[in-house]
Amino acid sequence: MSYDALLWLSFGGPEGPDDVMPFLENVTRGRGVPRERLEEVAEHYRHFGGVSPINRLNREAMAAVQQELAARGIDLPVYFGNRNWHPMVEDTLERMRSDGVRRALVFPTSAYGGYSACRQYDEDIERARAAVGEGAPELLKLRQFFDHPLFVAANADAIRAAHARLAGRPARTVFTAHSIPTAADAAAGPPETGGEWYSKQVFEAARLVAAQSGVEEYDVVWQSRSGPPHIPWLEPDIVDHIDALHEQGVRDVVVSPIGFVSDHLEVVWDLDNEAADRAAELGMGFARAATPNGDPRFAELVVELAQEHLAGGGVRKLSEAFPVAGCTLNGAPCAEGCCAPVRRPATS
Question: Who contacts 67 (Cβ-Cβ below 8 Å, separation ≥6)?
């Protein structure tokens, strides 16, 4: 099949102080999150002038993808749409229809399976097409890429660079990803597979990256949990883990945000501030590995994923533990019941 465009679909983030609360209200709509909690999170954004780096970094990555497409002789305009902040995906899809786009590929800025990491992007696509109505472009969401050789190589080199910043001292490597409720992780993946695709894919990505970067011992931990304290989430938390490493006599730590493709507030706050500050309080050396979307190989990765459909290109992946997943048309989930949303209890 032929395609007219590539839609870059992301989470979104505020780009000024006045954007912060409306953005957070979009993120938490329908979840019963109290105003006090939103104000607490808003202070993290205000620490950076009310600006998350995610939109800027997405635009830079999109420009690199556009250049890579041109270098390969592929005429495919790249459009930008977000779930929670402008440019909203509904508005972008309307513009695409006005531009005459009839069929587009969709690159979601998440490498993994699970509801928030994968199926919610299907819901974004379905919602946007419904909002546009008749003539809305057909949209094919590209597959998960946690085990793509270019994703693994970019993260491995970032870990080597972070270790080098610690002057060659032996440092413990710690991989982090966004925590989710354990019930959501249990529902991640087709029901017949037993679930836990999100955490299992994070562990698999960490294994692949550690092997390629020459790291023999490492840990996988979680960050950025939210919600009521009585709801179990994936643990341990990164800051708690730094405390545990200190008690074990570890003096230096390298943190790789393997669960994220670019910096955004939860990376720069939870890692570059909270985790780094805790390590400093304990007298530990701390280096945070870069996220991959600034690496030229990330643009190559996106174009390779597109070429799987544009020219019947081969599928490159390093893990045999998971089938190719995530290629879905017009917002349909991968399989019936796959990564079904888990209802969150309202916070009182």
Answer: 299
Long-range (24+ apart) CB contacts under 8 A made by 210-215 are 210/159, 210/173, 210/175, 212/152, 212/153, 212/156, 213/155, 213/156, 213/157, 213/159, 213/160, 213/173, 214/160, 215/159, 215/173
| CB-neighbour burial class of residue 161 (10 A; exposed 0-12, middle 13-18, buried 19+) | middle
Q: Are 139 and 329 in contact (CB under 8 A)?
A: yes
pTM of the model: 0.95
Name the token pair of 186: 């249990």
Buried b (16+ CB within 10 A) or exposed e, 282-298: bebbbbbbbbbbbbebb
138: Cβ–Cβ under 8 A, 6 or more apart, which residues?
A: 102, 103, 104, 329, 330
Beta carbons within 8 Å of 28's beta carbon, 6+ residues apart: 38
Q: Cα(147)–Cα(112) distance, rounded to whole angstroms?
A: 9
Per-residue pLDDT of 167-187, as tens digits, reads 879 999 999 999 999 999 999
- Kind and range of the H or E element at 92? helix 89-98
The answer to whether 202 and 260 have CB atoms below 8 angstroms apart is no
Looking at residue 344, its pLDDT comes to: 58
Residues 6+ apart with CB under 8 A from 121: 9, 83, 106, 108, 110, 141
DSSP string, 186-235: HT-S-GGGTS-HHHHHHHHHHHHHHHHHT--SEEEEEE---S-TTS-BS-
Cα dihedral 133, 137, 143, 146 sign: negative
Here the tokens at position 170 are 């032996």
Angle in degrees, 0-180, between the axes of helices 197-213 and 149-165, rounded to the nearest 10:
60
CA atoms within 13 A on the CB side of 337: 8
The amino acid at residue 323 is P
The torsion angles phi and psi of 277, rounded to 5 degrees, stand at: -65, -40
- Which has the minimum average pLDDT: 29-43, 160-174, 298-312? 29-43
User: Which residues have C-beta within 8 Å of that of residue 332, sequence separation ≥ 6?
Assistant: 122, 126
Residue 259 and residue 199 in contact, taking contact as beta carbons nearer than 8 Å: no
Strand 328-329 to 138-141 pairing: antiparallel
Residue 250: both structure tokens together: 């570890």
